[in-house]
Design goal:
The complex is a heterodimer of chains A (291) and B (323). Helix content of chain A is 75%, strand content 0%. Chain A is built from twelve helices and no strands. Chain A starts with a helix and ends with a helix. Chain B is built from twelve helices and twelve strands. Chain B has 323 residues and is an alpha/beta fold. The chains are: A mainly alpha (291), B alpha/beta (323).
Chain lengths: 291, 323
């Protein structure tokens, strides 16, 4: 066996859980849903027959299935199917950014705190405690108040809000892991602090962190949709699931549910699917750690 | 003499300080291990054996105050800078732990475990990976290709300990610290592992400090034996002499409390219990449990003194074992 295949050992066991498709049915369904959503968002122009912002006042609030409008039209006659698909782009990328950046910052902070302890830990942990006092949505709204509407401010706000969760989890996991004898064995083999903390201990706690990140993605998606719904995030007429729900309210009052229903279903499906997959990965991988 | 030994400890004392322990956990410990020599280090749990071996790698309890010198091949590890220390840890001294299951990273394959040790001691990764299989064969593992791809939890304790021995000796250290390497194993595996350890050590020409609480095991593979009680070396002599003519009452009691086959005598337990860390004694640490203890024993700390070929820390050693 070559050196390359062994260096890939760490990623190999991580990947095995995904394409193996040997998981329980909900996991397979969830993975399929996520794959479909991501692919659809990526090739949106190819699979939609209307542009998402194309207003047609002659055909408002058409029910699903009529005249080429697969999911019907909203109160200004825009094709709901196109808006849900294009909306996926706007709705999925910011939460992804939030999750990725909050995890990167949070894990780094957490590992540093947990590993080195002392003053560093005491200082950073107080900052984290302080941030914990604010709900994510509130921080995001504060960011909007400071930097104005749009996607940037809420995204940054949520990164700030989510970092403490990841940091605290990483810190506790590192502290727990640090006391295990194999870590001391590494020290006695002459490995340095940074190598042990980031190259040896971090991979061992990664499964749990991964599961937490998946949950974080779900929260971020919901929070950003909520902000857009409140008119603080994505601005109309851009297609976004939160914006769509906000705009569909008028129709809802008139007794027409589907302009609100479909973006809601989209949010629900993605969030539930991500949580199921995240949970499963966490269980599967940490089972290996504990064994 | 100095500088030629693989390990030389000179009047090492380690004190955790007030509030954490009533007495120093090590006081005035001196010992040496010559190159290629196997030296036993015997004592009860909590006597300070492990702290002593850890000190050799400068792994001390937090906030401990330490005095004395610990020379590894002539270099004092207690005053060595970080770089020097790391090179000593990765190349010159290797440690084998009591519980291999705890001491090996649970989520890495065996191949990774062996390779990262070699890389730490300055090898190239490709070379390291290529050597892994030979390393396993050297400790008598029959199916190295399969074992290399397995995780620690898939292997037995005996297998893991052999793997740890292979890993420890891979970097060709001059000194091997074996901290009760067989205590966690069952007796049949124990014999096998010890013989592999001893054979591999001899092949590599490494010196070994063999920590154990099993006197018989120590006698079987060691040339000299140090006996520790309550943080002090109480006796030091050649393995054969120690068995034939134990000088210190504690060593005598230890031997008398070991069951032996084909011998119908009572097994004598040592009365009392070992000193806990919070207890202080004015005189000899063993005096409260000692059948020979006299008045003076409870007042004066006996120094290690030479009697014949042995060194004993007992005021009444001549009466205990008239030679």
């Amino acid at each position: 066996m070559s050196a390359a295949s062994t260096t890939a050992a760490a990623s190999r066991f991580r990947l095995r859980a995904i394409p193996g498709l040997a998981g329980p049915a909900p996991v397979i369904v969830s993975v399929t849903i996520l794959a479909v959503v991501v692919i659809a968002a990526a090739i949106a122009p190819l699979i939609t027959t209307f542009t998402p912002d194309q207003v047609d006042l002659a055909a408002t609030l058409r029910p699903p299935g009529t005249a080429g409008h697969l999911l019907g039209t909203d109160s200004t006659g825009r094709d709901i199917f196109s808006r849900v698909i294009f909306g996926a782009r706007v709705s999925l990328v910011p939460p992804l950014l939030v999750t990725a950046l909050a995890s990167a910052i949070g894990i780094t902070l957490g590992v540093v705190c947990g590993w080195f302890g002392g003053m560093v830990d005491a200082g950073l942990s107080r900052v984290v405690d302080f941030l914990f006092a604010f709900p994510g949505l509130l921080v995001a709204m504060l960011a909007v108040a400071l930097f104005g509407r749009g996607l940037t401010a809420p995204t940054v706000g949520l990164i700030v809000a989510f970092t403490p969760y990841v940091a605290r989890l990483a810190r506790n996991l590192v502290i727990q892991e640090k006391s295990r004898p194999y870590v001391e064995a590494y020290r006695q083999q002459g490995f340095g602090n940074h190598t042990i903390a980031f190259a040896k201990v971090l991979p061992n706690i990664a499964p749990t962190l991964l599961a937490q990140c998946a949950l974080g993605f779900g929260y971020a998606l919901v929070d950003l949709a909520a902000l857009s719904y409140l008119g603080l995030g994505v601005q109309p007429p851009t297609a976004d699931w939160g914006v769509m729900v906000a705009e569909g309210q008028d129709a809802l009052v008139q007794g027409v549910a589907f302009p609100v229903l479909f973006p809601c279903i989209a949010v629900l499906l993605v969030v539930v699917a991500v949580n199921i997959v995240g949970d499963y990965l966490g269980d599967k991988l940490s089972g290996r750690v504990a064994a | 003499m100095t500088g030629t030994e693989a390990l030389r400890i000179e009047s090492l004392s380690v004190d955790l300080g007030r509030g954490r322990s009533g007495r120093p956990i090590l006081s005035d410990v001196s010992m040496y291990v010559r190159p290629g020599e196997t030296v036993g280090f015997v004592g009860e749990s909590g006597s300070g054996k492990s702290v002593t071996t850890r000190t050799v790698l400068a792994m001390l309890p937090a906030k401990a105050s330490v005095s004395g010198r610990v020379l590894v091949d002539g270099v004092d590890v207690l005053s060595a800078d970080r770089r020097r220390l790391r090179s000593i840890r990765s190349g010159q001294v290797a440690m084998i732990f009591q519980d291999p299951r705890a001491g090996i990273n649970p989520v890495r394959r065996i191949r990774e475990y062996l390779a990262e040790g070699l890389v730490a001691s300055g090898g190239r990764r490709a070379d390291a990976l290529a050597r892994c299989s030979a390393l396993l064969e050297s400790v008598g593992i029959r199916d190295p290709a399969k074992v290399l791809e397995q995780f620690p939890h898939q292997l037995s304790g005996g297998m893991l300990q052999r793997i740890m021995i292979a890993g420890a000796l891979a970097s060709e250290p001059a000194l091997l610290l074996a901290d009760e390497p067989t205590t966690a194993l069952d007796v049949t595996t124990q014999a096998e592992v010890v013989s592999i350890l001893e054979r591999r050590r001899a092949d590599a020409g490494a010196a070994m400090l063999f920590v154990t609480h099993d006197l018989d095991l120590a006698a079987a593979i060691c040339e000299r034996i140090y006996v520790m009680y309550a943080g002090r070396i109480v006796e030091h002599q050649s393995a054969a002499d120690l068995f034939a003519n134990p000088r210190h009452p504690y060593t005598r009691a230890l031997l008398a409390s070991t069951p032996r086959l084909g011998e119908s005598r009572r097994i004598e337990a040592i009365p009392g219990r070992p000193l806990s860390l919070s207890e202080t004694v004015a005189g000899c640490g063993f005096a409260p449990r000692c059948a020979f203890a006299g008045d003076l024993c409870t007042r004066e700390v006996p120094a290690l003194r030479r009697i014949g070929g042995a060194e004993v820390a007992c005021l009444r050693a001549e009466e205990v074992a008239p030679s």
